[in-house]
Amino acid sequence: MNGAPLTLPEELLLLALEPDRGGFLTNARYLRYGVAGAVLADLEEAGRLTVGGGDRITVLNPLPLGDPVLDGALAALPGPDKRGRGITAERWVRRTGRPVQELCVRRLEQRGALRRTTRRALGLFPYERFPAGAVDLTGPARDRFAGALDAGFPDRRGRLLAALASATDLDRRLLTGRGHRPVRREMKRFAGEFWTARAVQRAVRQDKEAGANAASP
């Protein structure tokens, strides 16, 4: 199990985790959207779904792939509505981000890549942290990302990961400083190219706009 290749959602989650403290480098809700978007990208790559007008998802093949995260997400995708239309990608990442990320966390726990700990804020309110486990998968994930960055993201998977990192604001924590502004702009361009990343981008943008409106007098 530990030797199986990482899926795209696993890789994104590992990039977003602080190995020592187990917290997230970006907004937790944004990351959930990103993990859900990464699942859609892997399912599309496996030929299990496609996307049509309005970024509406159509399941092409419901047969499982043998991965608990991808298969759980595939089973959760609804069929067409009364008009024969599938669910929009943005709505799906919003609605299923939390359970899909939970599946991903469990999978990484099983692989020994992280541990789940529960703490209490002010001694009262429980919250979870996910420090690195005995099997180091975070280091290799970050090395692969760094290698793709140095090579200019030559392959589709690397560009997808970069697009999702940009859509979730993770790029700002992974690539800090003015010197990385050009590559962050390139990653933002990638986010506009992939429908999965666009869905995440729109969900994040809506959250930001809702927060700004709530803060306005």
UniProtKB/TrEMBL annotation:
- Cited Pfam families: GPP34
Q: What Gene3D superfamilies does this protein's entry cite?
A: yeast vps74-n-term truncation variant domain like (1.10.3630.10)
Which InterPro entries does this chain map to? GPP34-like, GPP34-like_sf
Please give the Gene Ontology molecular function terms for this protein: phosphatidylinositol-4-phosphate binding
Keywords in alphabetical order: Golgi apparatus, Lipid-binding, Membrane
Please tell me whether the keyword Metal-binding is annotated for this protein. Answer: no
The cellular location(s) given in this protein's UniProt record come to: Golgi apparatus membrane
| Principal location class | Golgi
Supply the name of the protein.
GPP34 family phosphoprotein
